[in-house]
């Protein structure tokens, strides 16, 4: 894999709890214990002399509207050269645990607004979009597909317009579950990855840069 980042560049991870993964909010260098940390560690092993800054600004529980609310401080102020976004599962989840649904139209409109602002303010920033996912670990969540699948299609439409890189993670994890692992080996609740699940995301992230 060739070195995709230049010395001095900033790589930003954005999203919800899957990205957050227990990071220390008071420490800008904290990457949490999930795929952002794995990506940074692997990249530094591959390119030990590279001077790239990795920043994780994922926030547990966030929906796409929360990313827009955090835009000035957690996107624009950081001035990333490369940005990955994994968001959307809570836009489905809140419908079922809090009776607080997000329509597909609202989800797509808000995400579009966020991406438009990024393109306007950070025109040289490369964008990687990672689609939200759900595995069949918890059968009580099977009904979520009615809400989730149209939102995944919305993310794919937005990726065609805005993304430099796109990772169809819902399908990738389903394939891994069929061919290599059980659902619970990848995610115990269908949403939050185990170390194996995070390693799959990290591998796909790096593979996209090759």
Task: Work out the strand percent.
Answer: 5-15%
How many distinct helices? 10
Distance between the termini: 5 Å
Label the overall shape. Answer: globular
Written overview of the protein:
- The protein is an alpha/beta fold.
- It contains ten helices and five strands; from the N terminus they run E-H-H-E-H-H-E-H-H-E-H-E-H-H-H.
- A five-stranded parallel beta sheet has the order 2-1-3-4-5, sandwiched between helices.
- The radius of gyration is 16 Å and the shape is globular.
- The chain starts with 9 loop residues before the first strand and ends with a helix.
Topology:
Layout: E1 10-15, H1 17-20, H2 35-46, E2 53-56, H3 64-69, H4 71-76, E3 82-86, H5 89-97, H6 104-121, E4 126-130, H7 145-162, E5 165-167, H8 169-179, H9 183-186, H10 195-209
Parallel strand pairs: 1-2, 1-3, 3-4, 4-5
Descriptive terms for the model:
10 helices, 5-stranded parallel beta sheet, 49% helix, alpha/beta
Brief characterization of the structure:
The chain has 210 residues and is α/β, with parallel strands linked by helices. The chain has helices at 17-20, 35-46, 64-69, 71-76, 89-97, 104-121, 145-162, 169-179, 183-186, 195-209; strands at residues 10-15, 53-56, 82-86, 126-130, 165-167.
């Amino acid at each position: 894999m060739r070195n995709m980042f230049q010395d001095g560049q900033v790589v930003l991870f954005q999203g919800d709890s899957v990205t957050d993964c227990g990071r220390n909010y008071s420490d800008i260098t904290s990457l949490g214990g999930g795929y952002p940390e794995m990506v940074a560690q692997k990249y530094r092993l591959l390119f030990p002399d590279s001077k790239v800054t990795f920043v994780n600004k994922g926030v547990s529980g966030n929906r796409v509207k929360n990313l827009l609310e955090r835009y000035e401080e957690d996107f624009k102020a950081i001035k990333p050269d490369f940005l990955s976004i994994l968001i959307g599962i809570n836009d489905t989840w809140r419908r079922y645990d809090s009776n607080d649904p997000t329509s597909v139209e609202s989800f797509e409109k808000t995400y579009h607004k966020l991406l438009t602002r990024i393109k306007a303010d950070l025109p040289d920033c490369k964008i990687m979009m990672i689609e939200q996912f759900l595995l069949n670990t918890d059968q009580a969540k099977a009904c979520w597909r009615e809400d989730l699948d149209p939102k995944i299609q919305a993310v794919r439409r937005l990726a065609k317009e805005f993304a430099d890189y796109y990772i169809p993670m819902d399908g990738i994890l389903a394939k891994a579950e069929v061919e290599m692992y059980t659902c619970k080996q990848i995610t115990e609740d269908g949403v939050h990855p185990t170390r194996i699940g995070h390693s799959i995301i990290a591998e796909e992230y790096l593979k996209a840069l090759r």
